[in-house]
Structure formats: structure tokens, C-alpha cells
């Protein structure tokens, strides 16, 4: 069994997780209703976000907020091209991802969690390794979804079972992914901070995307479809 599955199989149950690539953009906010049987129940009071992993560092957590959720996000960054030429550059039009509860793992071994997010992208094209890594995750660990209302408005929706949390946000800071990040095909997307921009947000005020893997577009639109996706994974930390 692959390293990631061996290391984490004692912490998380087994299932298959592999998102398709090279498909049309997923429709916005079209997720099926489902019940989550696992809630964020592990103690996060002593878990610290690793601000010093990047230079410069991301803007700090606002006073009075506490860590509410830590999740693994796996999905796609979505892009468009107006023409398939080298003179055009891809435009970002949002992302979609599934969120898996990682609160117990980060409270046990945060470094192992960051290795898992990298592995989800690093081995995405090798089915046997994808299945090995996927053994550490379970559909019951799905606690939310990420999508965009529009290209400037990311939404982080945890309204499953008895959870009412949702963050409708805007990006307020970003820094380059640090050297050594898993690049995927074209490089790792930025680390960033998002802040609530809507009175419709419930329970959550700020969020961070860290330990990103993959997700960046090619440098030009040459030979690209008008709509295309790039696989990525990341840790997301939410405060409220």
C-alpha cells in the first residue's frame, strides 16, 4: 500500500476518491443533497495556522475569532480562453471542490495532512496510487462544498445535516505558494485569505487556503479549449 494510505489508514476509514479531469466546467451550485454522518468534533483549540511557511506571510486572523473547521479541499480550478492562441492568457473563472473533514487529522499531525493534499494531485494521473491515497478518505467525511457565485465571490458551504455554516467571501490577501509545493501540471495556486462580504454568511468570518497543490493554468491559451479545468487540492482553515 502506498505511503499515504499506510500512514493515515488508522485515522480515517476507506473509500474511493478520484475526481475526473479534462471535463467541461461543473455547473455552479448543483450539488446533490446528502447527509453528513461525521461532524467536526476534534479539539482544535491548540492548532495553529503555519503563517511562517510563506514569505511574506498572509494577513493574520482577526481578533476575537477562533478556529472552527479544517478541511481538505479537492477539485478543480476553472479557466476560460477567448482563443486557442499563444497571444492569449487563461482567465480564472472560479473553482469547485469537495470538502473532507480533517479536524482530527490536523489535531493529531498537521504535517501529515499537508503531505496528503500534495499526494492527491501528485498522483492524480496514476490510478493505482490515487486509489491507495483514497483509502484514507470516506464519503462520510464530506462536510461541505466550494463553488463561486461569480468570478469574484467564492462560497464555502457547510450546510449539511445539522451544520448551518456558510461563508460568502472575497479574497483579501494572497501570497505565492512556497518553494517545494506540489506543482501538478503548471504549478501550485497561491495561498490566500478570504473574508466574509455578505450578511448571508453564517458561523464563519474568515478562511485561509494553504498547502496548495496544482491548480495553476498554463501560461498561454495555445491549444486550450475555451473552458478547461486544472486539478488541485489544498487545506482550508475557517474561523468564526
Please describe what this structure looks like.
With 240 residues, the chain is an alpha+beta fold. 14% of the residues lie in helices and 32% in strands. It has four helices and eight strands. The chain has an eight-stranded antiparallel beta barrel with strand order 1-2-3-4-5-6-7-8. A hairpin with an 8-residue loop joins β4 (153-157) and β5. It is globular, with a radius of gyration of 17 Å. Residues 1-39 have low confidence and may be disordered.
Unreliably modeled segments: 1-39
Order of helices and strands: HEEHHHEEEEEE
Major sheet attributes: 8 strands, antiparallel, barrel
Counting H and I runs of at least 4 residues, what is the number of helices? 4
Radius of gyration: 17 Å
Q: Notable features of this structure?
A:
single chain, 240 residues, alpha+beta, 8-stranded antiparallel β-barrel
Give the SSE map.
Blueprint: H1 3-8, E1 67-80, E2 91-101, H2 103-108, H3 110-122, H4 127-134, E3 142-150, E4 153-157, E5 166-175, E6 191-196, E7 206-214, E8 227-239
Antiparallel strand pairs: 1-2, 1-8, 2-3, 3-4, 4-5, 5-6, 6-7, 7-8
